[in-house]
Amino acid sequence: MPESRMDLPTQVAELRENAVLDTVRQRLEQGDDPFRIMEECQKGMLRIGEQYEQGIYYISGLIMAGEIMNQVGELILPVLEDRVTAHASGRILIGTVQGDIHYIGKNILKVLLRCWGFTVFDAGEDVPADVFLKQAKEIAPQAIGLSCLISSSFDTMKNTISVLKAGLLETNLSPGIIIGGMVDQQICEYVGADHWTNDAMSGVRIFQKIIQGN
Ligand code: B12
Question: Is the pTM above the cut of 0.70?
Protein backbone atom coordinates (compact mmCIF):
# COMPACT_ATOMS: atom_id res chain seq x y z
CA MET A 1 0.00 0.00 0.00
CA PRO A 2 1.39 3.50 -0.78
CA GLU A 3 2.40 5.19 2.45
CA SER A 4 0.17 8.20 1.83
CA ARG A 5 -2.88 5.86 2.10
CA MET A 6 -1.78 4.22 5.35
CA ASP A 7 -3.40 5.44 8.55
CA LEU A 8 -1.21 7.41 10.96
CA PRO A 9 -0.57 4.58 13.49
CA THR A 10 0.59 2.37 10.59
CA GLN A 11 2.85 5.09 9.18
CA VAL A 12 4.42 5.43 12.64
CA ALA A 13 4.65 1.66 13.18
CA GLU A 14 6.38 1.28 9.81
CA LEU A 15 8.76 4.17 10.61
CA ARG A 16 7.68 6.13 7.50
CA GLU A 17 9.16 9.35 8.82
CA ASN A 18 8.27 11.69 5.92
CA ALA A 19 4.75 10.29 5.60
CA VAL A 20 4.16 10.67 9.36
CA LEU A 21 5.32 14.29 9.36
CA ASP A 22 3.29 15.11 6.22
CA THR A 23 0.16 13.57 7.75
CA VAL A 24 0.63 15.39 11.06
CA ARG A 25 1.22 18.73 9.28
CA GLN A 26 -1.84 18.26 7.05
CA ARG A 27 -4.08 17.26 9.93
CA LEU A 28 -2.96 20.20 12.04
CA GLU A 29 -3.63 22.52 9.09
CA GLN A 30 -7.12 21.02 8.80
CA GLY A 31 -7.66 21.85 12.46
CA ASP A 32 -7.65 18.25 13.73
CA ASP A 33 -7.49 17.72 17.48
CA PRO A 34 -3.78 17.58 18.43
CA PHE A 35 -4.54 15.18 21.30
CA ARG A 36 -6.10 12.74 18.87
CA ILE A 37 -3.08 12.97 16.57
CA MET A 38 -0.79 12.33 19.53
CA GLU A 39 -2.87 9.33 20.64
CA GLU A 40 -2.68 7.82 17.17
CA CYS A 41 1.11 8.24 17.14
CA GLN A 42 1.27 6.60 20.56
CA LYS A 43 -0.68 3.62 19.15
CA GLY A 44 1.96 3.31 16.44
CA MET A 45 4.71 3.45 19.08
CA LEU A 46 3.04 0.61 20.99
CA ARG A 47 3.15 -1.50 17.83
CA ILE A 48 6.84 -0.69 17.40
CA GLY A 49 7.42 -1.84 20.99
CA GLU A 50 5.61 -5.13 20.26
CA GLN A 51 7.61 -5.67 17.09
CA TYR A 52 10.81 -4.97 19.01
CA GLU A 53 9.81 -7.67 21.53
CA GLN A 54 9.12 -10.07 18.64
CA GLY A 55 12.57 -9.41 17.17
CA ILE A 56 11.15 -7.73 14.04
CA TYR A 57 12.71 -4.39 14.98
CA TYR A 58 16.04 -3.90 16.71
CA ILE A 59 17.28 -1.05 18.89
CA SER A 60 17.81 1.05 15.75
CA GLY A 61 14.03 0.83 15.20
CA LEU A 62 13.40 2.20 18.70
CA ILE A 63 15.90 5.02 18.09
CA MET A 64 14.23 5.90 14.80
CA ALA A 65 10.80 5.79 16.51
CA GLY A 66 12.10 8.16 19.18
CA GLU A 67 13.37 10.55 16.50
CA ILE A 68 10.02 10.51 14.70
CA MET A 69 8.13 11.14 17.94
CA ASN A 70 10.42 14.06 18.79
CA GLN A 71 9.65 15.66 15.44
CA VAL A 72 5.92 15.01 15.85
CA GLY A 73 6.20 16.70 19.25
CA GLU A 74 7.87 19.74 17.66
CA LEU A 75 4.89 20.10 15.32
CA ILE A 76 2.14 19.42 17.84
CA LEU A 77 3.29 20.96 21.09
CA PRO A 78 3.30 24.61 19.89
CA VAL A 79 -0.28 24.11 18.62
CA LEU A 80 -1.30 22.77 22.03
CA GLU A 81 0.39 25.69 23.78
CA ASP A 82 -1.56 28.13 21.61
CA ARG A 83 -4.91 26.46 22.15
CA VAL A 84 -5.08 25.97 25.86
CA THR A 85 -5.43 28.85 28.24
CA ALA A 86 -4.14 28.45 31.74
CA HIS A 87 -6.54 28.14 34.67
CA ALA A 88 -4.82 26.18 37.39
CA SER A 89 -1.77 27.01 39.38
CA GLY A 90 0.58 24.99 41.50
CA ARG A 91 4.11 23.59 41.53
CA ILE A 92 4.92 20.19 40.12
CA LEU A 93 8.21 18.34 39.96
CA ILE A 94 8.58 15.69 37.27
CA GLY A 95 11.35 13.42 36.03
CA THR A 96 12.22 10.00 34.68
CA VAL A 97 13.60 7.66 37.34
CA GLN A 98 17.18 6.42 37.51
CA GLY A 99 18.13 3.80 34.93
CA ASP A 100 15.53 5.01 32.44
CA ILE A 101 16.31 7.50 29.68
CA HIS A 102 12.88 7.61 27.97
CA TYR A 103 11.69 11.21 27.95
CA ILE A 104 9.21 11.69 25.11
CA GLY A 105 6.11 10.99 27.22
CA LYS A 106 7.45 13.02 30.15
CA ASN A 107 8.07 16.00 27.88
CA ILE A 108 4.53 15.80 26.51
CA LEU A 109 3.23 15.77 30.07
CA LYS A 110 5.39 18.80 30.89
CA VAL A 111 3.95 20.85 28.03
CA LEU A 112 0.39 19.86 28.89
CA LEU A 113 0.83 20.74 32.56
CA ARG A 114 2.26 24.12 31.56
CA CYS A 115 -0.66 24.64 29.18
CA TRP A 116 -2.97 24.05 32.13
CA GLY A 117 -1.20 26.74 34.12
CA PHE A 118 1.05 24.71 36.41
CA THR A 119 4.64 25.66 37.12
CA VAL A 120 6.62 22.58 36.18
CA PHE A 121 10.17 21.74 37.19
CA ASP A 122 11.71 18.98 35.09
CA ALA A 123 14.50 17.07 36.80
CA GLY A 124 15.32 15.31 33.51
CA GLU A 125 15.96 11.65 32.82
CA ASP A 126 17.87 8.94 34.66
CA VAL A 127 17.38 10.93 37.86
CA PRO A 128 18.70 9.41 41.12
CA ALA A 129 16.42 9.37 44.18
CA ASP A 130 18.58 11.82 46.15
CA VAL A 131 18.38 14.36 43.31
CA PHE A 132 14.58 14.13 43.33
CA LEU A 133 14.63 14.66 47.10
CA LYS A 134 17.00 17.64 46.90
CA GLN A 135 14.88 19.28 44.22
CA ALA A 136 11.65 18.55 46.10
CA LYS A 137 13.05 20.29 49.20
CA GLU A 138 14.09 23.32 47.14
CA ILE A 139 10.96 23.58 44.99
CA ALA A 140 8.32 22.50 47.54
CA PRO A 141 6.02 20.96 44.91
CA GLN A 142 2.40 20.07 45.71
CA ALA A 143 2.77 17.00 43.51
CA ILE A 144 5.54 14.90 41.96
CA GLY A 145 5.30 12.95 38.71
CA LEU A 146 7.66 10.06 38.05
CA SER A 147 7.99 8.59 34.58
CA CYS A 148 9.16 5.03 33.98
CA LEU A 149 8.98 2.92 30.84
CA ILE A 150 11.24 0.00 31.60
CA SER A 151 10.52 -2.73 34.10
CA SER A 152 14.16 -2.82 35.24
CA SER A 153 13.59 0.62 36.78
CA PHE A 154 10.49 -0.25 38.82
CA ASP A 155 12.69 -0.92 41.85
CA THR A 156 14.43 2.42 41.37
CA MET A 157 11.02 4.07 41.26
CA LYS A 158 10.03 2.27 44.47
CA ASN A 159 13.24 3.42 46.11
CA THR A 160 12.74 7.00 44.86
CA ILE A 161 9.29 7.10 46.43
CA SER A 162 10.50 5.78 49.78
CA VAL A 163 13.45 8.21 49.78
CA LEU A 164 11.05 11.08 48.99
CA LYS A 165 8.52 10.06 51.64
CA ALA A 166 11.16 9.55 54.34
CA GLY A 167 13.14 12.65 53.40
CA LEU A 168 10.13 14.94 53.32
CA LEU A 169 8.83 13.76 56.71
CA GLU A 170 10.98 16.33 58.50
CA THR A 171 9.48 19.09 56.31
CA ASN A 172 5.86 20.17 56.13
CA LEU A 173 5.64 18.93 52.55
CA SER A 174 3.58 15.91 51.54
CA PRO A 175 3.29 16.04 47.75
CA GLY A 176 1.04 13.53 46.00
CA ILE A 177 3.07 11.12 43.90
CA ILE A 178 1.85 10.10 40.45
CA ILE A 179 3.59 7.58 38.27
CA GLY A 180 3.22 7.35 34.49
CA GLY A 181 4.61 5.48 31.50
CA MET A 182 4.49 1.68 31.22
CA VAL A 183 2.77 1.31 34.60
CA ASP A 184 -0.47 -0.09 36.01
CA GLN A 185 -2.35 -0.47 39.30
CA GLN A 186 -0.17 -3.37 40.43
CA ILE A 187 3.03 -1.39 39.86
CA CYS A 188 1.47 1.61 41.57
CA GLU A 189 0.87 -0.52 44.66
CA TYR A 190 4.30 -2.13 44.42
CA VAL A 191 6.19 1.18 44.31
CA GLY A 192 3.94 2.93 46.85
CA ALA A 193 2.73 5.75 44.57
CA ASP A 194 -0.59 7.54 45.16
CA HIS A 195 -1.84 7.45 41.56
CA TRP A 196 -0.88 6.08 38.18
CA THR A 197 -1.74 6.67 34.54
CA ASN A 198 -0.37 5.90 31.11
CA ASP A 199 -1.96 8.89 29.48
CA ALA A 200 -0.66 12.44 29.90
CA MET A 201 -4.07 14.11 29.74
CA SER A 202 -5.55 11.98 32.51
CA GLY A 203 -2.31 12.77 34.35
CA VAL A 204 -3.14 16.48 34.10
CA ARG A 205 -6.58 15.76 35.63
CA ILE A 206 -5.03 13.81 38.49
CA PHE A 207 -2.59 16.65 39.19
CA GLN A 208 -5.49 19.11 39.17
CA LYS A 209 -7.40 16.99 41.69
CA ILE A 210 -4.40 16.60 43.99
CA ILE A 211 -3.49 20.27 43.92
CA GLN A 212 -7.04 21.55 44.28
CA GLY A 213 -7.44 19.19 47.25
CA ASN A 214 -4.35 20.68 48.96
C1 B12 B 1 11.25 5.39 21.64
C2 B12 B 1 11.67 4.25 22.54
C3 B12 B 1 12.99 4.23 22.95
C4 B12 B 1 13.99 5.37 22.66
C5 B12 B 1 13.71 6.48 23.71
C6 B12 B 1 13.95 7.87 23.17
C7 B12 B 1 13.83 8.85 24.32
N8 B12 B 1 14.93 9.43 24.68
O9 B12 B 1 12.79 9.00 24.94
C10 B12 B 1 15.37 4.66 22.90
C11 B12 B 1 15.88 4.12 21.60
C12 B12 B 1 16.46 5.51 23.54
C13 B12 B 1 14.94 3.48 23.78
C14 B12 B 1 15.84 2.76 24.54
C15 B12 B 1 15.50 1.61 25.24
N16 B12 B 1 14.31 0.99 25.26
CO17 B12 B 1 12.70 1.83 24.58
N18 B12 B 1 11.12 2.25 23.71
C19 B12 B 1 10.74 3.24 22.94
C20 B12 B 1 9.27 3.07 22.49
C21 B12 B 1 9.25 2.50 21.08
C22 B12 B 1 8.41 4.32 22.54
C23 B12 B 1 8.42 5.07 23.86
C24 B12 B 1 7.71 6.38 23.65
O25 B12 B 1 8.33 7.44 23.54
N26 B12 B 1 6.35 6.32 23.51
C27 B12 B 1 5.53 7.49 23.16
C28 B12 B 1 5.17 8.27 24.41
C29 B12 B 1 4.30 9.47 24.04
O30 B12 B 1 4.42 7.40 25.23
P31 B12 B 1 4.75 7.16 26.78
O32 B12 B 1 6.18 7.27 27.04
O33 B12 B 1 4.02 5.95 27.23
O34 B12 B 1 4.12 8.46 27.48
C35 B12 B 1 2.73 8.71 27.54
C36 B12 B 1 2.09 8.25 28.84
O37 B12 B 1 2.64 7.05 29.33
C38 B12 B 1 2.24 9.42 29.75
N39 B12 B 1 3.38 9.50 30.67
C40 B12 B 1 4.66 9.14 30.49
N41 B12 B 1 5.37 9.41 31.60
C42 B12 B 1 4.52 9.96 32.49
C43 B12 B 1 4.72 10.39 33.78
C44 B12 B 1 3.64 10.89 34.50
C45 B12 B 1 3.84 11.39 35.89
C46 B12 B 1 2.35 10.95 33.90
C47 B12 B 1 1.21 11.48 34.66
C48 B12 B 1 2.15 10.50 32.60
C49 B12 B 1 3.23 10.02 31.91
O50 B12 B 1 2.30 10.54 28.91
C51 B12 B 1 2.60 10.21 27.57
C52 B12 B 1 1.53 10.76 26.67
O53 B12 B 1 0.27 10.23 26.97
C54 B12 B 1 8.75 2.05 23.56
C55 B12 B 1 7.57 1.20 23.12
C56 B12 B 1 6.27 1.62 23.80
N57 B12 B 1 5.44 0.67 23.98
O58 B12 B 1 6.03 2.73 24.17
C59 B12 B 1 10.03 1.25 23.87
C60 B12 B 1 10.23 0.55 25.23
C61 B12 B 1 9.73 1.43 26.37
N62 B12 B 1 11.67 0.39 25.31
C63 B12 B 1 12.02 -0.74 25.79
C64 B12 B 1 13.36 -1.16 25.97
C65 B12 B 1 13.58 -2.60 26.39
C66 B12 B 1 14.42 -0.28 25.77
C67 B12 B 1 15.92 -0.57 25.99
C68 B12 B 1 16.24 -1.39 27.26
C69 B12 B 1 16.45 -1.26 24.72
C70 B12 B 1 17.89 -1.71 24.80
N71 B12 B 1 18.08 -3.01 24.65
O72 B12 B 1 18.79 -0.93 25.00
C73 B12 B 1 16.50 0.85 26.05
C74 B12 B 1 16.45 1.39 27.49
C75 B12 B 1 17.38 2.49 27.72
C76 B12 B 1 17.17 3.06 29.13
N77 B12 B 1 18.10 2.78 30.02
O78 B12 B 1 16.19 3.72 29.38
C79 B12 B 1 10.84 -1.60 26.17
C80 B12 B 1 10.62 -1.69 27.68
C81 B12 B 1 10.14 -3.08 28.05
C82 B12 B 1 10.11 -3.31 29.51
N83 B12 B 1 9.04 -3.94 29.96
O84 B12 B 1 10.98 -2.97 30.25
C85 B12 B 1 9.69 -0.96 25.35
C86 B12 B 1 8.30 -1.06 26.01
C87 B12 B 1 9.68 -1.67 23.98
C88 B12 B 1 9.26 -3.13 24.12
N89 B12 B 1 7.97 -3.42 24.01
O90 B12 B 1 10.08 -3.96 24.31
N91 B12 B 1 13.62 3.25 23.68
Answer: yes
